[in-house]
């Protein structure tokens, strides 16, 4: 029979070998994982301007439609930081809100018009929710949106990622006729047919609906100085 010392040494060696092997695999796969994340981000940005992309053509379509990117600081002044590289999840966690960075993407549509895409980040029932809102060049009317989540309930909160929910936002407006900021509200019980500032909330997904509502309101509010400036040009 093997001694306890032998078993201990043998187990330690096996654990070390497995740990090294897993580390090497993780390091080797990281470039592929990072590229998958990059491609998915391109797909999500394109989705907000109603361009459907696959992993194979996402990069080509991104280069075709996204003509400019830039980053604003919390004071809405341009800073020399690559917009695409910004992780909004990290930015919203900064307790010093004056240190946050805000990326902006400008798209040139097939009809020649421009669209301005603003990333958003919020909290759902079970985890983070995020997305993009694309405004037409009047800086008021929604061209499209894209929302996703980490762990919302299938058939309930997870509906924010569906075409049915997102299609409601097309043509909605974030300012009223007096120029006051209203955002797009996700309303429990549904929005009235003539409500240009509201969409139907998700039945059975009240907390997720509130999370998306708050994400849009606060997310676009952060960009308001820039949006208001551009509206005047």
Description:
The radius of gyration is 22 Å and the shape is globular. The protein has five helices and eight strands. The strands form two sheets. The protein has a six-stranded antiparallel sheet with strand order 2-1-3-4-5-6. Strands 7-8 form a two-stranded parallel ribbon. The protein is 38% helix and 22% strand. A hairpin with a 4-residue loop joins strand 4 and strand 5. The chain starts with a helix and ends with a helix. The protein has helices spanning 4-47, 58-65, 88-92, 163-167, 206-232, and strands spanning 66-73, 78-79, 101-108, 114-123, 128-136, 142-149, 185-187, 198-200. The protein is an alpha+beta fold and 233 residues long. Helix 1 (4-47) packs across helix 2. It has one domain.
Tags for this model:
alpha+beta, two-stranded parallel ribbon, 6-stranded antiparallel sheet, 38% helix, 233 residues, 8 strands, globular
Parts with pLDDT < 50 across at least 5 consecutive residues: none
Give the overall form. Answer: globular
Strand order of the largest sheet: 2-1-3-4-5-6
Kindly report how far apart the N and C termini lie. 85 Å
- Counting structural domains, the number is 1
Structural class: alpha+beta
What does the radius of gyration come to? 22 Å
In short:
The protein has 233 residues and is α+β, with helices and mostly antiparallel strands. It is 38% helix and 22% strand.
Mind sketching the topology for me?
Blueprint: H1 4-47, H2 58-65, E1 66-73, E2 78-79, H3 88-92, E3 101-108, E4 114-123, E5 128-136, E6 142-149, H4 163-167, E7 185-187, E8 198-200, H5 206-232
Parallel strand pairs: 7-8
Antiparallel strand pairs: 1-2, 1-3, 3-4, 4-5, 5-6
Helix pairs in contact: 1-2
């Amino acid at each position: 029979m093997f001694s306890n010392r032998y078993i201990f040494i043998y187990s330690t060696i096996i654990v070390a070998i497995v740990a090294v092997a897993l580390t090497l695999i993780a390091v080797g796969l990281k470039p592929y994982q990072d590229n998958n994340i990059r491609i998915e981000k391109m797909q999500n940005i394109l989705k907000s301007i109603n361009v459907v992309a696959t992993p194979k053509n996402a990069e080509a379509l991104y280069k075709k439609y996204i003509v400019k990117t830039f980053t604003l600081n919390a004071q809405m002044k341009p800073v020399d930081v690559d917009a695409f590289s910004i992780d909004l999840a990290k930015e919203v966690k900064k307790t010093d809100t004056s240190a946050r960075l805000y990326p902006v993407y400008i798209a040139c549509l097939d009809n020649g018009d421009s669209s301005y895409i603003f990333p958003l980040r919020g909290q759902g029932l079970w985890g983070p929710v995020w997305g993009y809102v694309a405004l037409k060049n009047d800086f008021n009317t929604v061209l499209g949106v894209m929302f996703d989540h980490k762990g919302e309930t299938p058939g309930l909160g997870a509906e924010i990622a569906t075409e049915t929910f997102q299609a409601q936002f097309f043509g909605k407006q974030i300012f009223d006729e007096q120029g006051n900021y209203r955002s797009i509200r996700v309303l429990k019980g549904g929005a009235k047919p003539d409500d240009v500032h509201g969409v139907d909330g998700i039945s059975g997904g009240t907390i997720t609906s509130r999370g998306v509502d708050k994400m849009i309101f606060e997310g676009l509010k952060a960009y308001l100085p820039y949006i208001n400036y551009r509206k005047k040009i």
